[in-house]
Specification:
alpha+beta; CPE0013-like fold; 2 domains; 3-stranded antiparallel beta sheet; elongated
């Protein structure tokens, strides 16, 4: 038996997942809606997370001398087992300014359909 708190909506249902029959036979209780059950099943079978990180900047940002990195995030959740490899690839990237919030920094990472996007707008000092 596993316990989770649902994070899909503000209700925060306390979920109990009986996985004694293996991953193919999950029984979820405590959910007040179908989304809670779906969340629990995905969290047990194939957990995913939105990943945040930073990328180095080529040059210097205008008006913000201390900024040396651009915050980035995945546009969709990444499987937990691939997060380490994703972060290694993100940390290799150097962004040339200007960059706008939402600009794709890495498109379709490793064929996963996961885009990495800028989470801040920065302009070049030039």
């Amino acid at each position: 038996m596993r316990n989770l708190t649902c994070i899909v909506c503000p209700m925060g249902c306390s979920l109990e997942i009986d996985d004694s029959g293996g991953k193919d036979a999950l029984y979820v209780t405590g959910n007040k809606c179908q989304r809670g059950k779906d969340y629990a099943v995905e969290e047990i079978r194939a957990p995913k997370r939105v990943v945040t990180a930073t990328c180095a900047i080529n040059g210097q940002a205008r008006g913000v001398a201390s900024v040396r990195r651009v915050p980035v995030k995945t546009a969709s959740p990444c499987p937990k087992e691939k997060i380490s490899a994703l972060l290694q690839d993100i940390y290799k990237v150097k962004i040339t300014l200007p960059v706008k919030m939402g600009d794709v920094v890495i498109a379709d990472w490793n064929g996963s359909k996961i885009d990495i996007v800028a989470a801040r707008t920065l302009f070049s000092d030039n």
